[in-house]
Amino acid sequence: MKRLSLWVWALVLVGLALWFWRGRPVSLVNLPPTARGPWVAFGDSLTAGTRVPPEAAYPAQLGHRLGVDIVNLGASGDTTADGRARLPEALQLNPRVVLLCLGGNDSLQREPLDQTFANLAALVDAFQPTGTFVVVLGVRSASVLDQHRRRFARLAREKRVLLVPDILDGVLGTPALMADPLHPNEAGYARIAERIATALEPHLDQLR
């Protein structure tokens, strides 16, 4: 009985320790950023704003809401590997903030999950040494069960970046917010911009 009581107390102490550490705020890398370039949105068609005019894409709507200019470096069809190939284009801008949105096309093309997230990690690793604050925008996998959610959460935790999970949640599959089965319309991109703005607003004083 005495041994059982010791085990119970040990479990209680472990639980309290986990609760304490999970409750502590995560120190985000490069907050505030030291890079002096513009904000950059770097991604695929969700960033480029496929099916809508440039001013309706999420980077333009987000920039208008936050009062910052955001350079749109979205390229329709890009995978995470394509993003790595385009890195010099973004790095030469010395971006203060990068909004990184890639991974959806990897899933559509059935790229290995480990490779997708290795590429995303490499992209984060390329931006952080330059003093850039990285925001990762999560996208669900093209499968019944979302295979991306936990991996994006792990990436954000390991790299200490701000994560906006599943930016298409409540947009994808809602006809009033979609221009086609894969791409939002102007109202859908507005919903995405609102979601990102909500995540960024607590840090804006340090990011501007």
Characterize the structure shown.
The structure is a single chain. The chain is of the alpha/beta class and 208 residues long. It has a single domain (36-207), classed as 3-Layer(aba) Sandwich (Rossmann fold), CATH 3.40.50.1110. The chain contains ten helices and five strands, in the order H-E-H-H-E-H-H-E-H-H-E-H-E-H-H. The chain has helices at residues 2-23, 45-48, 58-66, 80-85, 87-91, 104-108, 113-127, 149-159, 186-200, 204-207, and strands spanning 39-43, 70-74, 97-101, 133-137, 162-164. A five-stranded parallel beta sheet has the order 2-1-3-4-5, with helices on both faces. Strand 4, helix 8 (149-159) and strand 5 form a beta-alpha-beta unit. Helix 7 runs parallel beside helix 8. The radius of gyration is 19 Å and the shape is globular. The termini are far apart. The relative contact order is 0.16. The model has no long low-confidence stretch (mean pLDDT 92).
Distance between the termini: 60 Å
Question: What general form does the structure show?
Answer: globular
Count of individual domains:
1
* SSE class: alpha/beta
Number of helices: 10
CATH-defined architecture: 3-Layer(aba) Sandwich
In short:
With 208 residues, the protein is α/β, with parallel strands linked by helices. The chain has helices at residues 2-23, 45-48, 58-66, 80-85, 87-91, 104-108, 113-127, 149-159, 186-200, 204-207; strands at residues 39-43, 70-74, 97-101, 133-137, 162-164.
What layout of secondary structure does this protein have?
Layout (H helix, E strand, L loop, with lengths): L1 H22 L15 E5 L1 H4 L9 H9 L3 E5 L5 H6 L1 H5 L5 E5 L2 H5 L4 H15 L5 E5 L11 H11 L2 E3 L21 H15 L3 H4 L1
Parallel strand pairs: 1-2, 1-3, 3-4, 4-5
Helix pairs in contact: 3-9, 7-8
